[in-house]
Amino acid sequence: xxxxxxxxxxFDLVLADGLYLRAPFVSLLRRHHKHVLLVLKDExxxxxxxxxxxxxxxxxxxxxxxxxxxxxxxxxxxFREMTTDWHADHVxxxxxxxxxxxxxxxxxxxxxxxxxxxLNLKPVLRQRHTQAYFVRRMAAELSALGSSP
Length: 149
Description:
The chain is mainly alpha-helical. It has six helices and two strands.
């Protein structure tokens, strides 16, 4: 985790899906005093069994259903947008580092575009053109740069 060394206070919480559900990953984050929120999809996972043992006898915290439902809506919308609008539904290499690099690049691209859209464009331009319009314009500009002598 390269970001832990240069900027240890950049984040406090890591939200991870089943792909990262490995004890060494969780242990590394906990050693660096990071909180971990994992999406467990399989009852047989060792971490789930360990967590049940650790928290046995404690009263579970009950959350209001509305914020939890809203969080899932946001997450599902994000993944739907990544696969539909950004064509992130296929990884081109199946090596774990390649998959990680691919997802990080997609997320970086989307976040940079969102910053451009929300912080750089004037409201009148956002109303006049769709996000897809600006994505196509940027792609055309990058393509033109690549074909220059």
